[in-house]
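REQUEST ID: PR-0412
SUBMITTED BY: lab tech R.K.
PRIORITY: routine
TASK: structure prediction, single protein chain
INPUT:
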Amino acid sequence: MNLPALSGPALRRRSFPVRHLTLALAAALLVAALPALAQERDTGRHKAPVPKPAPKPAESKTAPVADPVFTAAGERWFVGLGAGLLDAGDLYRVQADHPLAWGRDGDIWFTASRFTATIDPGSVITAFAGRRLGQGRWWLRGELATGACDVTAEALLGEGGAVFPCDRVSFLTGTLALEARLTAYPSHPYASFGATLSDLSADQDPQLDQTLLGARGALGYRQLMGPLQLTGEVSLRRMSLDLDGFTPPTSGVYATFDPATELWLFELRLAAAAGW
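STATUS: complete
OUTPUT:
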């Protein structure tokens, strides 16, 4: 079947809808793209910043510091001076059947039926020196100390009591001890233990004079302050005491005499030393 040929006007009438459809499709695509274009356009409003991931902490490249160890290097000697407080215990107890006048050479101190003679706290000054042994943990330390304390009588008077001075004793003490430093740091705690020999002398009663032998233990801390070493120390001495030939200071007859057989000396000391 032969189809009629389309002339120019007819062809234009048939292509008109196609062109409009093409334009309509392009307009639809443009309308769909407008929101995206509006977002890309700078409107003066800033977008919320996107948070950046936190940077990882940088790993330390410094090697851990090792604890110091004892070595043969460093100081070999130290010398110093110290001062502190000295305290001790009871010397003896006396009890009579009735009140007696206590004293010597006609000097009456007090009248009571019983009392306890006690060494009161006093002062002490110490000079010391130390020598390193081996790698430095162990040291040999020698000391010479002098101190004095009052002796008082705690007497029972009726329903109460009173304290009376009765003498004063002095100590001249030498000590040889082994000291152990507990850490290798320049400032360190330490402990020591050694033998001690002390000369005890009384101002008024020579019967108390004697030589005491015993042991001494101490704990302390040494702080390095430039060229100086500052030390705080507590020590305890246990020494034998012999009062067998001692006579209580009275002319009367007493019932019991209870002397101490050992003397405990407690010392609290602050000291400064230099080492080389």
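NOTES: The chain has one helix and eleven strands.
REVIEWED BY: pending
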